[in-house]
């Protein structure tokens, strides 16, 4: 069963069939995506009075993100969730029917703070990850992979750490680098909203594509990951989503640029 926060993964409309679950998802999601804009549009069309209130809360949420005001964003998110859970099932079905005609918006970047994008380094795709240094650059900054400098006890997968240009660790990945596919088993970024996760996923996917391999994201529990997959067009066509034990496994042919 999907966790409440995974409602905004863009996995499928069946997840939205109940306004109670939808409200819980909004309340528990770490950051809301563009789907709430679709909801706002549908509310205004179907239930104008509540739609106006929903839009006001959405505007407050976006303002809070821009200002870095956690209190404002939390308050606005709670208000958005309250509007949804207070919606009758009859009206909710009308809202879903309206959205079925227009489709869900899935551009997760609508709420991101504007900043310079990372540029992927492409001349190192055929190196072992243990020998890769810089994977992405932007003005004044770099991202690099480095293997652990101490010998860890045996683990189920390989690990590499992620560093910035001043040598500060900003995250890590766990993976299996196989002959026919690259499996990302874990990714952690310690500095959110800086595009680091997007840069890492895009570089890994393009590396797999240039090697003619499939790209696999295993046990995805963070909704931001799937949002990045959609926004950055990581895969050719529609990847395969498998839900297992509350987590997603995403498999497909990565897009080659």
Weakly predicted, low-confidence segments: 1-15, 106-114
So how many helices? 7
Radius of gyration: 20 Å
What integer is the average pLDDT?
A: 80
- Strand residue content: 15-25%
Into which percent range does the helicity of residues fall? 25-40%
Q: Calculate the terminal CA-CA distance, rounded to whole Å.
A: 35 Å
CATH superfamily of the largest domain: Gcn5-related N-acetyltransferase (GNAT)
Q: What is the CATH topology of the largest domain?
A: Aminopeptidase
Tell me briefly what this model is:
The chain has 257 residues and is of the alpha+beta class.
Report on the structure:
This protein is α+β, with helices and mostly antiparallel strands and 257 residues long. The chain has 2 domains: 4-111, no CATH class; 119-252, Gcn5-related N-acetyltransferase (GNAT) (Aminopeptidase), CATH 3.40.630. 37% of the residues lie in helices and 21% in strands. The protein has helices spanning 19-28, 35-46, 48-67, 70-85, 89-102, 196-210, 223-231; strands at 119-120, 134-138, 141-146, 158-163, 169-177, 181-189, 214-220, 240-244, 247-252. A 9-stranded mixed sheet has the order 1-2-3-4-5-6-7-9-8, covered by helices on one side. It is elongated and about 60 Å long. The two termini are 35 Å apart. 32% of the residues are buried.
List its traits.
alpha+beta; 7 helices; 9 strands; 37% helix; disordered N terminus
How are the elements arranged and paired?
Blueprint (H helix, E strand, L loop, with lengths): L18 H10 L6 H12 L1 H20 L2 H16 L3 H14 L16 E2 L13 E5 L2 E6 L11 E6 L5 E9 L3 E9 L6 H15 L3 E7 L2 H9 L8 E5 L2 E6 L5
Parallel strand pairs: 6-7
Antiparallel strand pairs: 1-2, 2-3, 3-4, 4-5, 5-6, 7-9, 8-9
């Amino acid at each position: 069963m999907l966790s409440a926060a995974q409602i905004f993964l863009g996995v499928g409309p069946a997840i939205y069939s109940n306004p109670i679950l939808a409200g819980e998802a909004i309340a528990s999601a770490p950051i809301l995506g563009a789907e709430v804009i679709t909801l706002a549009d549908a509310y205004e069309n179907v239930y104008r009075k509540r739609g106006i209130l929903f839009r006001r809360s959405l505007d407050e949420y976006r303002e809070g993100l821009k200002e870095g005001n956690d209190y404002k964003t939390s308050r606005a998110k709670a208000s958005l969730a309250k509007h949804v859970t207070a919606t009758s099932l009859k009206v909710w079905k009308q809202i879903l029917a309206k959205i079925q005609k227009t489709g869900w918006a899935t551009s997760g970047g609508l709420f991101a703070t504007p900043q310079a994008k990372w540029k992927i380094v492409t001349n190192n795709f055929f190196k072992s990850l243990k020998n890769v240094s810089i994977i992405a650059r932007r003005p004044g900054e770099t991202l690099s992979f480095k293997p652990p400098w101490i010998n860890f006890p045996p683990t189920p997968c390989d690990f590499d750490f992620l560093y910035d240009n001043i040598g500060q660790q900003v995250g890590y990945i766990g993976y299996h680098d196989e002959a026919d596919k690259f499996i990302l088993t874990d990714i952690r970024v310690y500095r959110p909203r800086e595009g680091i996760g997007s840069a890492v996923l895009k570089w890994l996917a393009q590396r797999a594509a240039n090697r003619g391999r499939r790209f696999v994201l295993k046990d995805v529990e963070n909704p931001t990951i799937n949002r990045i997959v959609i926004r950055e067009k990581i895969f050719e066509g529609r990847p395969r989503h498998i839900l297992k034990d509350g987590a997603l496994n995403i498999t497909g042919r990565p897009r080659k640029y």
